[in-house]
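Input for the complex:
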Amino acid sequence: MSSSQTQEPASVADVSAGLREVGYLPGESTALVSFLATRLGKPVLVEGPAGVGKTELAKALASYLGRELVRLQCYEGLDEAKALYEWNYRKQLLRIQAEASGTGWEAVQEDIFGEEFLLARPLMTAIASEEPVVLLIDEIDKTDQEFEAMLLEVLSDFQISIPELGRVESRTHPIVLLTSNNSRELTEALKRRCLYLWLDYPELEHELEIVRLHTPELSETVARRLVEVIGMVRALDLKKPPSIAESIDWARALLLLGVKDIDADTFTETMSVIVKHRTDMDVVADRVGLKLRSPADVA
Amino acid sequence: MSPDQRDGPESVPSASNPSDGPESVSAHSDLPARILELGEELRREGVAVGTSEMLDAFEVLGEISWTSQRDFREALAATLAKSQEDRRVFELVFDRFFFRAAEIAAVQEGIREGERAALGELTEEDLEELRAQIAAALRDGSEGAMRDLARMAIAAFARRQEGSGVIGVDVQRIRRALGLRAEPQLELPPEGGRATDHYGLPREALRRFEALLRRELERAQIERTGSLPPARALGELDRALPSGPLADLAAVHRVVAQLRRRLATQGMQNRGHRRHAQVDVRRTMRASLQTGGVPVVLKYRPRRPKRPEIYVLCDVSTSVTSASVFFLSVLHALHDTFRKMRSFVFIERISEVTDIFEHERNFKAVSEKISGDAGVADISGYTDYGRVWSEFLTQVEDDLHPRATVIVLGDARTNGRDPRADIFAQIASRAGRTFWLNPEPRLYWNYGDSVIAAYEEFCTAFECWTTAQLEDFVRALTRPVASAQ
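Predicted:
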């Protein structure tokens, strides 16, 4: 995994260039905060609307730094048995039954609470790993506050206490990214331990660059027109504004169709790639379709 | 205008530095104090900046180069501002703080800008030229060019007419005189004349240009008077109740998104009956190992929060016109997030509008439909609460149950009609919880024909005319219920 182990980046520009190399175009603050995270070893809390590349950032960082990515997807009702560790009780039961008679309780007890019977879950894996990893805790806002509280020990001291075994301390320092869609306020205690990064929809030029990177065959003019239209659509008050991933999908669709220019007709035909709610489609067709009609003649 | 460049020259390196920051920080005797002041100022604006945040900020500054204002700002922001809202405040405070710091230094040192470039009499052609240049700069988005043009515009207009002395007014006056607009004006021909009118200018760039105008005007004012105006808190102006329904819908959506989350988890968790708990076989087995495989301790499945059911009654009569826009946008946002929700609007009688909210996305269309053909049968246009309650009760009587929450949005002004608090009491007793949001300040409650006291016996009433108060309501809504009603 770590064959291409890179050393610590020396400057913000290094990080920026490195992320570019692996196909992620970071914004200025993204590169800066990633750099600080590698230098200070502090977790980063990444917030922003869905589909702006929060999860992608973690993947790109992992591949840039040549580290393994350990991912913990959060959901309502996630508990420590699924996030930290669990005893492999089936194996433990078998062990007990296999030696039902003959062995003393002391011996068995010592035996079944050994590392052999421990199932490591993502957080444990990240902490105990020999090689430094990138730990992604995705959608932390979906969990309960209790789970957040449990995370505090992991995030500030990089250690996990197991009652039967003792304390597992990290051998290496993982880079931790927490993502949140901002569906609830996170606790102050958690925020205090993190650096904060707000990812928003990129600016026009930046998004153009991203689209061009993923669909280099698309002509410059169409790509520019595309991000302009996407910008217009995002300016409307929609249930689900189009994400970056959707702009790329749209670019690919246009490429397949061999479109030379985005006019009102092409737009209405391919709109379903970027707008995914019936009510939204009405609004968009209404507002953007109209705007596209006249400038298309000029351009 | 990088802060360190401005502050750098005056500072004397000193060894006795109270801060434990890295080497590079202690090289500037001034800077740690400045950063602490900035933290102080952020706290005054309500951003929670703790000691650990300050320590982080110093640590971070040791890692980056200070030659770029952007890096400097981003690094501080990443450690000090931990939410989008905080980030917005941080931007404002950061700009103001370092702008003021630089200006104070300038006043103390007696530095003055050279006389502004003397322009001749301003002709229409000059104006047109300036206009075109600004429009071009806005499109390119080049900060330096925009700043220069902002100063030229100010100089040009100082010659043409007296400044009003109020910076905000001057900014708008200049912008209007230059005819800079963000909205496209499709009725103008795309070719010829002012080509920019047809498509409009990029909104974001225009906003930045206005900010630059404001800053340059402030600087000119400071230079004239030789002193700084008192620092004004950002305060309510920036955070007041959304008044424009479309522009600030996002703010309401944000508050309501929180409301949803808290409703869905905390409020309901502590309710219900323990006897329905299910045994979790996996965890019971795992626990049994501590007792040699004998399940002594039963483990239960965690209780999943129940989906709340919400009934909202919203007054749309004339007495609450100003507030009903706000209420409707709250309703609108609520509908986005709750699936089991029914809404009613009422004046003299009630009318269910759940369908409209579910099928219409555009807020404007929603409010038009509601005021138009939603079927709010209002003969007199005056609220009749008694009738509203009885109609509501007949419509939903069978559906109301202890897990339901009823929220009433209205001013409780009955126009002298019978409040029929007895029917309201029936509703409240059937529903689990009943809340009343009143858009009037508490001071006016129970004056005139307001009968909120009659209803307050059966529900919890809140005044609600700012987003902050809406958040208070959310907090109360999610507080665990003390006892079953």
